[in-house]
């Protein structure tokens, strides 16, 4: 793989995102993954199966997804390797699996909406979180947006970039496919507890390094954000991340909380059920639209640090 692919993919996707016209015309890779995942789930995760059979069916479904993604992307990459500037096309295809621009836009929209009204804020945040927005007050809406921004910094940007760096187009596509499967079927309710087991465990494995790398990048970005504390970001991440139910999600969330002296996490409602989650950080708990904007600044500086790291790595490979 050409070493310029990761930094160029980051730079271009951050500015352009995934064009809406393409979504309307051919869809998006995540949509395609979702259709295959839904097709398999409807046929394999049936009520008449035992828990063991459901778990096996989930493993088979995940294997089919991975095999399909690898066949397509390895084939595309092989064809592109025959072309004089095929690496540029591989780089452009890779941008579809990054989410820098859309993530920032969606979270900024929550801040704008919340300034208008609580109902508007709830509507805006419903597009970026899975919890019940009607149960949130203004501070809850703000926290939900910032928590999503923090967690998605890892699984929407840093993790895809890392797998692109290591394995090229097949790597970033494979990561995104597994992450999509986890978001769709990796739940602990009765329907998905067994069927989604493999997707959830593999997603945890793939995100182990990126989550911790994200906390390091967020800590480094604090030096570029007035008032942010790199020392508190890292200390809070190390202290509070293990409290999270997920082995990975707590790292970027706690780093954001410590960096900005916020308190994130805490109880939240999913489909009417209150889930008691731990809090991250010891700072300000009553957050608002301006706090979302501050978190967005930290997010953007984290992207700057990631691009700088990616560029340095590319130059090191080129001159070696």
UniProtKB/TrEMBL annotation:
It is found in: Cell membrane. It is a multi-pass membrane protein. Pfam families: CobD_Cbib (PF03186). Keywords: Cell membrane, Cobalamin biosynthesis, Membrane, Transmembrane, Transmembrane helix. InterPro entries: Cobalamin_biosynth_CobD/CbiB. The keyword Iron does not apply. Converts cobyric acid to cobinamide by the addition of aminopropanol on the F carboxylic group. HAMAP family: CobD_CbiB (MF_00024). PANTHER family: COBALAMIN BIOSYNTHESIS PROTEIN CBIB. This is Cobalamin biosynthesis protein CobD.
